[in-house]
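**User:** My hope is that you can spare some time for a protein that puzzles me. As I understand it, each token names a local backbone shape. I would be glad if you read both lines and explained how they fit together. The protein I mean follows directly.
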Amino acid sequence: MKRIIIGVLILFLLFPIRAYGAEEVPEDLEEYFIFAGKEFNICPELLEAIAYYESRFTPDAKNGSHYGLMQINVKIHADRMKKYGWTKEDMFSPEKNIIVAADYLSELYEEYGDNAKVLAHYSGNSKAVKKGYLCKYAKKVLKKSYEYEQRRERKCSRSQILMKE
């Protein structure tokens, strides 16, 4: 029995399995976050932090009408998806899902211009949007975004501003 356990442990050490749900951003997803960040002028680490809390980087995550990495509500964002020629099934594509989320976040930044309000609105917390307070979701996302920025020795102004509050 001990030999079997040791053998399995050695296999895991030699051939690690990429597990979704890990805190680190999966390498195969990084390029999508960077692309969308540049395209929509949003810090890639902020997008990564949202994906971490929305799905733990699981591309096929589904919760009711919320699909994919960024948990896009396919009912609310049907027109946004249609603009790109995409269907709700396309929201299981990490690249397409991140683009739709970044497009929406960009729109929210234009309207609110404030991390707290943007993230509260993204998470559906209308009470925080109206009252202008920093909701738990925004705090968690901004903290994680800041951690990702520090690991990469980058500084994105939008999450830095809120981390000081």
Summary: The chain is about 60% helix and 5% strand.
